[in-house]
Amino acid sequence: PHALAYVIYTSGSTGTPKGVAIEHGSLTNLLAWARATYSATELGGVLAATSVSFDLSLFELFAPLSAGGTVVLAEDALALPTLPARDHVRLVNTVPSVLAELLQQPAGLPPGVVTVNLAGEPLRRGLVAALEARGVARVLDLYGPSEATTYATGGPRTGAGPETIGRPLRATTLYVLDAQGALLPAGVTGELYVGGAGVARGYLHRPGLTADRFGPDPFSAVPGARLYRTGDRGRYLADGRVEFLGRADEQIKLRGYRIELGEVAAALARVPGVREAIALVIGEDASSEASSEVSREGSAGRRRLVGYVATGTEHTTDHTTEHTTEPLTAASVRRTLAAALPAYLVPAQVVLLDTLPRTPNGKVDKRALRTLREERTSHDERFVAPRTPLEATLAEIWQNVLGVERAGVHDSFVDLGGHSLLAVQVAAQLQARTGHVLDPSKLMVQTLGQLATAIQNRSVPVSP
Question: Whole-model pTM?
């Protein structure tokens, strides 16, 4: 059981490959879970389309073979519709983004597929509902780093149910801990730690890194038990299921608020018409949004929360598939979020894309997103240039403070990237140039034209 079964390399967030050493006991624990979880029918035809350099392949190859089932080989999952043996496939094991592409094909999923395993990325309700509509009987949401032997948690999902990664698997423990290593109660977000039979031996020839990520399990009575610090964040729900909330290094601090980028992305993805979404911090000092220490506000005014969303001609709700009759706009996305989230979690800018760019291994390419030209976020009304001297003065101040090329009568301060700290700067410049004393909060709810009219009508305080 303690002999080495395999070493699989993963780049992680640093880009430096590290070899994860998995022992035979950990792998056989995974297979014992699979035998107990899946029927002979499901394991009788498993699509094996994942590269052997990726740990999902361990399930695809060994789970069916250890149960007397059949492995159906494919170059990749997108080849399934044209695969000669496609009618033998009963279980598909892949990542949500690939499955979503598969469903775009008319015969993407053969009728014989009864179960779909999805892992590696957040799984949204819309995709689950689309699978249900195709007649898939079981959709399982699975989570686990390579250091936990492929999967650590899992459970069934429904299109109408909550977005969770299920419960810990057989002989596996999952803890949600605070920064001091203390257990957190249900509903409180913390870092996820995995313990139990699936924990890897460590990193090959990397003792320092192993010591940093693997440590003793203080909650276990088993001698020598260890924990793996995943670097992911989540929280237990009251029913014992776990909600995944993104990477711990994606928690940022912006204008004094701690923000979980994964939480914002999840909210964006729930907006009708949005197929996929990601949230990033863009602007000065944002190149390391992966660091929670990025909280300096000296050049603060330029940092903003941006949501990138991929849209489609149709979207899936919890129960039905609806065709959008009007194109989604950035402003409408922000309005929907504003009704569901605190103001500080609503992106200052929303960028609409057909699809999110991806790296060769299928992950969202954040670097490519950062190089996109920042489009204007308000498309609901035609641009109207300032019409009065006061509107022109306000537009010039907005352009200076927000760093935008133009500001029109129908533009919103918030939609152009404004926030409370920048509103104070605008108020100060306006008073210095015109003598008007402006309540900064007015900037957050009025367009440029409305604000100018209010000032002219003296519905906002002005100096004598």
Answer: 0.62
